[in-house]
Amino acid sequence: MFYVGTCPFCEQGSLGVRICNKAGDAVILCDECDAMWLSPEINAPPAFPEQPNLPCPCCPGNLTDDPAHWASFGEIYQKGWISAVKGELSEER
Q1: What is the mean pLDDT of residues 71-93?
Q2: Which domain of life is it from (predicted)?
């Protein structure tokens, strides 16, 4: 998972770029508390999608089921968010 920082809300989770559908809509999502931002500008207060499905704010899908996934480097680049990426975490985390 490519991440853009540590969650300012829970101060524990990593903020990953999540692709929510095949159209390429993306959000920033905390992998611990599910805080969500619609851009890599994480200074604004987060939104919290309804549990447990985490509905996507951009489409009728959700952020937990296929085709939703953590963004690849190419998807982040296409979105124009590559400058926000701080690193990549291993899948084993």
Answers
A1: 88
A2: Bacteria
